[in-house]
Design a protein that fits this description.
Bound molecules: fructose -6-phosphate
Low-confidence stretches: none
Number of strands: 27
Strand content: 15-25%
Radius of gyration: 25 Å
Strand order of the largest sheet: 3-2-4-1-10-9-11-15
Oligomer: single chain
Length: 608
């Protein structure tokens, strides 16, 4: 969701900025722009649509000379995608320019105040108030100007700012929207996400809330909003720059699905030690684990779906009541958190605005928060009391696959850890569960190798209007994720239902030929789900079943069956989701959709 790249150094800035922005394309955007100081003035070029348009307009940046500049990919919030609304935004004299991620919440008030003082606005954006406000406060001292503006604005921001008067400096600032800066021998860089500058430097500084950075060609200085100089430690990024490349796969999503065996291994294995589960990051003794009387899981989207599975698994294995909330609901519903409760937030990006707000709400009420997070150094990772990382590496495709799979296994580990500490899992069951966990990566690989079968089946449904996913218990949680995967990338309307709920309304939507994907991996519920399949089949549905190898009975009710290998029923989500991910992917590919960057979506949702 929106991307920022900035550079000041000895090389031409525009090609570096374009290259950096291309690494942020996955985040989702609808227009792009760059501001470059050419030695006399600041030039801005913007375009609607893909970054390619901006690249073509500027011949890969060549036609924009200059060694310092800022660039942006915009995901429209205030005002339609257009050249006028695209960033960077200028002041009237075109001497100050700004790029911004986030939302200025008091922009209407500021806009009115500036309009009353004679400022004229050309765009519908909240960002333009920043350009004029910077102009309003500017008296020749850019640092002082930036901090004055930050004291006036409310909301969230990551900013890149350029003053024509001070072309040897670029400014960056942040509140509640991610921002990193880095340096190499050729200059200093700003980025809203690490992949944008990973090619140039591995040592980055995470800018904290309400900090300002002054970047020059050969050094950077950090300041508080009160202009006090700060000392910060760099973080070395361990992951390989190639991890953010496609490596011969047609799409990042396909590559990331194929990385799932490794992701699951990397998340599980360091925490399985000598036939036990050791989660050092939890920082909880068995006694403390025992004293937890309720777990609140809070997340958005697929991470929420992982949480729904977590509820079934934790309640089943550890016998602790679990409540799962959508973060956007949790933060405003005044949730009841009672003594002994523990809050777990789940997030791939670690930057999701609602999840971050839920974390802060819980902490403000005095509850400890465990973050299950993928991006090291992200806001949630830094603000959570304890962090359990999912070692999925960078996930580029907007639709999550490998991070979701890693979240699932992190939750299984937690469930087993709690279950054992509370005496709810005996040693025999524990050993058998550990064995099943260790087998998951190979089993996932086996299912991935079945992709041609799924592709063939998916090709029959590229014209589908509606698809329903049904299941009970954990199978309902799998259905939620299977349905989201299909709809978000193929734009086919799809719903997930607890199978028993169908006849309370939704069954009226079933018509001749409607595809119903029935997930049935829970032996205790096989017969119940078969009844629901029979009900929809009787109304004309075509039934695809995803089930376990032992459940051959299902063939009597299904039109097409995909079998998953044997595992403990608590872990079936990790296997059943693979054919459903492949199904969504191949339907979208068959329809010619932009699989990695679905319309209207952003990789990390840093605004409410
Ligand atoms: C769907 C998807 C989203 C995210 C959601 C939360 O494929 O990726 O639903 O799961 O936006 O994002 P994170 O996990 O970054 O908090």
């Amino acid at each position: 969701m929106c991307g920022i790249v900035g550079y000041i150094g000895t090389k031409q800035a525009a090609p570096i900025i374009l290259d950096g922005l291309s690494k942020l394309e996955y985040r989702g955007y609808d227009s792009a722009g760059m501001a470059i100081y050419d030695g006399g003035k600041i030039n801005i070029t913007k375009s609607v649509g893909r970054l390619k348009v901006l690249e073509n307009l500027t011949h890969g940046g060549e036609t924009m000379p200059g060694i310092c500049g800022i660039g942006h990919t915009r995901w429209a919030t205030h005002g339609v995608p257009s050249n006028t609304n695209a960033h960077p935004h200028y002041n009237a004299a075109e001497t100050i320019t700004v790029v911004h991620n986030g939302i200025i919440e008091n922009y209407l008030h500021l806009r009115q105040m500036l309009t009353d003082k004679g400022y004229q606005f050309v765009s519908e954006t909240d960002t333009e108030v920043l350009a004029h406000l910077l102009d309003y406060y500017y008296r020749g001292n850019p640092l002082e100007t930036v901090t004055k503006v930050l004291h006036r604005v409310e909301g969230s921001y990551a900013l890149g700012i350029l003053f024509a008067d001070c072309p040897d400096q670029v400014f960056a600032a942040r509140k509640d929207s991610p921002l990193v800066v880095g340096q190499n021998e050729d200059g200093c860089f700003i980025a809203s996400d690490v992949p944008a500058i990973l090619k140039y430097t591995r040592k980055v500084y995470y800018v904290d809330n309400q900090e300002v950075v002054r970047l020059r060609a050969d050094h950077m200085h950090f300041y508080s909003v009160d202009e006090e100089e700060l000392t910060k430690e760099p973080v070395t990024i361990e992951w390989d720059a190639n991890a953010a490349e496609k490596a011969g796969y047609e799409h990042f999503m396909l590559k990331e699905m194929y990385e799932q065996p490794k992701t699951v291994t990397d998340t599980l294995m360091p925490r399985i030690k000598e036939k036990d589960i050791v989660i050092e990051e939890l920082n909880m003794s068995d006694e403390e684990l025992n004293s937890v009387n309720k777990i609140h899981i809070v997340a958005c989207g697929s991470a929420y779906h992982a949480g729904v599975t977590g509820k079934y698994v934790i309640e089943g294995l550890a016998r602790i009541p679990v409540e799962v909330d959508l973060a956007s609901e949790f933060r405003y519903r005044n949730p009841i958190l009672e003594e002994g409760a523990m809050v777990v937030v789940i997030s791939q990006s670690g930057e999701t605005a609602d999840t971050l707000a839920a974390l802060r709400e819980s902490k403000a009420r005095g509850f400890k928060v465990l973050g299950i997070v993928n991006v090291v150094g992200s806001s949630i990772a830094r603000e959570a009391d304890n962090v359990m990382y999912t070692w999925a590496g960078p996930e580029i495709a907007v639709a999550t696959t490998k991070a979701y799979s890693a979240q699932l296994v992190a939750l299984y580990l937690l469930a087993m850890k709690f279950g054992k500490a509370r005496g709810k899992i005996d040693s025999k069951l524990f050993a058998s569960l550990l064995g099943d966990l260790k087998r998951l990566p190979n089993q996932i690989e086996m299912l991935l190798n079945n992709k041609l079968k799924i592709q063939k089946f998916a090709n029959r449904y590229i014209g589908a209007k509606d698809v329903f996913f049904i299941g009970r218990g954990i199978d309902y949680a799998i259905s939620l994720e299977g349905s989201l995967k299909l709809k978000e990338i193929s734009y086919i309307h799809s719903e997930a239902y607890a199978a028993g709920e169908l006849k309370h309304g939704t069954i009226s939507l079933i018509e001749e030929g409607t595809l119903v994907a029935a997930v049935s991996t829970q032996p205790d519920l096989y017969a119940k789900t078969i009844s629901n399949m029979v009900e929809v089949k009787a109304r004309g549905a075509f039934v695809l079943a995803v089930t376990c190898e032992e459940n051959k009975e299902i063939e009597k009710a299904a039109d097409y069956v995909i079998y998953i290998p044997e595992t403990n029923p608590y872990f079936t989500n990790s296997l059943a989701i693979i054919p459903l991910q492949l199904f969504g992917y191949y339907v979208a590919v068959g329809k010619g959709c932009d699989v990695d960057k679905p319309r209207n979506l952003a990789k990390s949702v840093t605004v409410e």
